[in-house]
Amino acid sequence: MSDSIILGIESSCDDTSAAIIKGNTILSNIAANQEIHKEYGGVVPELASRAHQQNIIPVVEKSILKANIQQNAISAIGFTRGPGLLGSLLVGTSFAKSLAMSLDVPLIEVNHLQAHILAHFIDDANPVPPKFPFLCLTVSGGHTMIVLVKDYFDMEIIGKTIDDAAGEAFDKIGKIFDLDYPAGPIIDRLAKEGNPDAFKFNKPKLENYDYSFSGIKTSVLYFIQKEVKKNPDFIKENMNDLCASVQKCIIEILMNKLEKAAKDLDIKEVAIAGGVSANSALRQIMQDNHEKLGWNIYIPKFEYTTDNAAMIAMVAQLKFERGEFTDLRTTATSKYDL
To answer: How far, in Å, CA of 6 to CA of 52, rounded?
Structure first.
């Protein structure tokens, strides 16, 4: 790994983040969260892009300061080109272009989904990085997919959600339970005090490795409507058990397909990535499968699970070594194939 110093910028959704990487060592990883979306129960694109405009300069300045480097030591700038919210991506893309031009350094575009997967190669993400080929369950608020990773930039999606993402299902069900946004971490916390076998919800029956999460959301909604008619305090009285049961169902859906893919392809190297990979029950079942199925498992550090610039910087570093640069005509894109 080279000694080049790269600034990574991430602005795909509602977190503004900047990181400095040297080789594959993260020197700083700074993020500004946008609390305003809690009021609306979800990310409001217009508000997100405005907040990015306010946050991006202080976040980049702080990342350079924390890394203890001079601005002119930066060898290249990596940025999230997509996928994500177009307005948010435009802020990061425009800033990255301007800074690259002023510093006269190369510009490197990064696919946000690749970055979640390749975060595993940051030197403190895992004790050892995954070996190729490996399977990566990439699961977040916007995406749920099983990716066969043959090399750094040779990836194939072998299964994906046909409707909601798993993180989206957690948030929508959280709304039914009248929990704050984002609901995933709250459900995870409350589930620790609940009985995961208290209630049963519908699971989809899809043939291949694809997922569906709209069914469980509908199943929960109808169940709650029925129970609340009988007892208006049903949710409050059963909150922990409801959260534990929902979490168990979603994680079983995720793991059933991942286990099937690992068995069918005879792959023992298995990783998780994305925001939902911070979920404690998912992390635990991965540990269990290390024992039960003999998997070599790769679970990233918490700070590399959510949207962060460290993963963007990691991909930019790999591309820098390959001389894969982009020019100033590049534009942000809300859809960006893996």
So the answer is: 21
